[in-house]
Amino acid sequence: MAGEISILHLLLDASIVVQAVMLILVGMSVTSWAMIFKRKKVLKEALQDARKFEDRFWSGIDLSKLYAEVSARQQVDGLESLFKAGFKEFARLHKSSRQATAVMDGTHRAMRVGLSREVERLEQDLPFLATVGSISPYIGLFGTVWGIMNSFIALGAVQQATLAMVAPGIAEALIATAIGLFAAIPAVIAYNKFSHQVEQLESSYVNFVEEFANILHRQVSSGEAA
Fold first, then answer.
1. Which residues of 131-154 are buried (b: 16+ CB within 10 A; e: fewer)?
2. Is 46 exposed, middle or buried (0-12, 13-18, 19+ CB in 10 A)?
3. Domain locations in the chain?
4. What pTM value is reported for the model?
5. 124 neighbors 195 (Cβ within 8 angstroms)
6. What is its main location (predicted)?
7. pLDDT digits 0-9 by tens, 111-130
């Protein structure tokens, strides 16, 4: 209990600059944890939805029926979004053109735009986590340097210096570094983990786009030959 009280006293007795640094770091830490929990939920759901839709897609269901099911939903994400964009553009172009190349070029463009939007959605919040992970230690270090500098300035104003005089100032300064590391380490770990998951999902999306495009190309080519 005494340790907790002494740390609290150190925080309350710290200089305005060091206190401001600590508040900034605490705010960054709280925000990053909120984003971590949010991004974890989003990526987990994206992975589950991708597996579920792939099972449905490869079950042999008629693509027109699957498109009707997907279109009936108010909001679609992930593979469903790519499928909807691709099939919608394919159907539109196929009605107006029998040239397989023109139809598939337009279909590919629609799905690439959808893919870019989905990756952007999945990567949301990751830049902030990367920023917190990279700058938090330096912000904490700034607070530490400032606190130690003030301690030595105060030490130079007295004739007889003791460890008890300088220790509180150095201790409060080191707390800023500790808070900076506390904010940075989870952010870095989460950023690396989420980036890997986004790469896996993006690879899965790209593979689906190519496989779906091949299916549509065979359909339009058979129609063109007929």
1. ebbebbbebbbbbbebbbebbeee
2. buried
3. 2-225
4. 0.82
5. no
6. membrane
7. 999 999 999 999 999 999 99
